[in-house]
Amino acid sequence: MEKLPRSHGKHFSSESFFAKHKKIILIVACVLFLIFWISPFGLLKILGIYSNEPEIVIILASNVGGGVLRWKSEQEWAIERLSIENKRNYCLRHGYGLTIKEMPIEKRYSHEYREGWQKVDVLKQTMREFPNAKWFWWLDAETLIMEPTFSLESHVFSRLDDLVDRTLSEFNPLKLPTDTPYANYLDNEVDLLITQDCGGFNLGSILVKNSDWTRLLLDMWWDPAGYEQKHMLWEHREQDALESLYANEPWIREKIGFLPLRTINAFPPGACSEFSSDPRYFYNSNDRDFVVNMAGCNYGRDCWGEMQRYMSIYQDKNRKWYSKLFKL
């Protein structure tokens, strides 16, 4: 009589279990891989959740070509790479657009005095490039977004009534007139959000609404009378031009709002050094300030050192839970 082969119950049971559930096991393995190796906002991008026409676009002033007056140093390249990666990750997380704009002293400006007005020109170009965007956020290269979980909607736009000063009544370092005849604040929404530091308007981090008013303002701001006739009087170029427009044009004044500096543009120690004891200016990690701007670090300060310091703070604050657990 022929003997049947001895059955190995455990072996066949185990094999049948994996065969039966192999799809589920594969799916779970893939999900775990994505959780640990791909950031949540990167995963959302892969899944195609983000729109091709973002409502908010970040404009990052940069100079990826290396420079015109001189070639950039290794530290300047490193600062630029850190800044770009910081903004790219933030945009992926929130579904915003990012456009990186070259800011060298271009040849077409070389016969005039409008180098400082490139910002205005770039804003005009970007508004044509993204006609369906609602807001544009201009950021200088020496900035870091320190709280990537904060969206502009929750951190700024939903709190405008509490944050915005329309008449310079709360903070007015330039002693500009606090009121102008015919300026109607009640019936006009804010289309330009800026901050002030110890020297006046700060344009290193500004929010610009996509509107007809903004386009008209940019045309006025781009007026050759400013950059050709006032270049000897206006040390800060486009900043001084906007301050003059604000002081003298009611239709401009009534649609500009001032945010507290630390809302979108906090400073490191060393900037506004004569006000080192004034907490209105300087980044505070405990208060979860949104953005730090190494403004003026090229003038007697260490841009790379400051960038490294705040990048280290950023990494400590935003390290993933599993990185802390496994000390990665």
TrEMBL record:
> Gene3D superfamilies attached here?
Spore Coat Polysaccharide Biosynthesis Protein SpsA, Chain A (3.90.550.10)
Transmembrane stretches, by residue range? Answer: 24-44
Q: Which UniProt keywords apply?
A: Glycosyltransferase, Membrane, Transferase, Transmembrane, Transmembrane helix
Question: Single Gene Ontology BP term?
Answer: protein N-linked glycosylation
The GO terms this record gives for MF are: glycosyltransferase activity
**Record-level GO cellular component terms:** Golgi membrane
Highest rank taxon of the organism = Eukaryota
Q: Which InterPro entries match?
A: Glyco_trans_34, Nucleotide-diphossugar_trans
Family membership, please give it: Belongs to the glycosyltransferase 34 family.
Q: What is the protein named?
A: Putative alpha-1,6-mannosyltransferase MNN10
Q: Which organism is it from?
A: Hanseniaspora osmophila
